[in-house]
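ingest -> validate -> predict -> emit
validate: passed (alphabet ok, no gaps, 85 aa)
predict: started
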Amino acid sequence: MSTLNFAFGKKNYLLVAIGVILIVVGFLLMTGPGSTETTFEPDIFSVRRIKVAPVVCFVGFILMIYAVMTKPKNTSVNSPEKTEE
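emit:
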């Protein structure tokens, strides 16, 4: 019986999913009301939008890079298959 060898393991996919969620949360933290020509919205310079959200996005991107670069534990790329003659 042949088993499929995937490039990523379960841990890799979990880390990628967490990274994507962190990036989406970071972008959602950046949203908010914007300034127009007639009114100025001081909320565009809030700590949440200037400092917290970019850090959350950055952590998400770093986690995704780590997830892609991490080697799964059960890698047997060149495992010989048994053939019956």
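The helical segments are 10-30, 47-69.
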